[in-house]
């Protein structure tokens, strides 16, 4: 069977594995980006506390 985009491939198990790998990869990248932002924000908070302590001393 042919589709508009080319040959129809009925290998649903292979397609499912590809979708799972793609979903996992996107999830890891998203969580990694969120973690970087969290660590960056925590670093800024620590820096501001250190600056306040320096001003008080």
Notable features of this structure?
single chain, 57 residues, mainly alpha, 2 strands
Which secondary-structure class do the elements indicate? Answer: mainly alpha
Overall mean pLDDT: 79
From the alpha carbons, calculate the radius of gyration and give it in angstroms: 24 Å
Helix count equals: 1
* Order of SSEs: EEH
Strand line-up across the major sheet: 1-2
How far apart are the termini?
78 Å
Annotation, overall tally of beta strands: 2
Helix content: over 70%
Low-confidence stretches: none
Q: Major beta sheet, specifics?
A: 2 strands, antiparallel
Shape descriptor: rod-shaped
In percent terms, what proportion of residues is strand?
5-15%
Short description, anyone?
With 57 residues, this protein is mostly helical. The protein has one helix at 12-56, and strands spanning 2-3, 6-7. A hairpin with a 2-residue loop joins strand 1 and strand 2 (6-7).
Can you offer a commentary on this structure?
A hairpin with a 2-residue loop joins strand 1 and strand 2 (6-7). This protein has 1 helix and 2 strands, in the order E-E-H. The mean pLDDT is 79. The protein is mainly alpha-helical. It has one helix spanning 12-56, and strands at residues 2-3, 6-7.
């Amino acid at each position: 069977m042919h589709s508009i985009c080319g040959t129809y491939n009925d290998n649903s198990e292979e397609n499912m594995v590809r979708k799972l790998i793609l979903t996992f990869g996107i999830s890891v990248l998203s969580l990694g980006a969120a973690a970087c932002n969290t660590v960056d924000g925590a670093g800024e908070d620590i820096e501001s506390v250190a600056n306040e302590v320096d001003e008080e001393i």
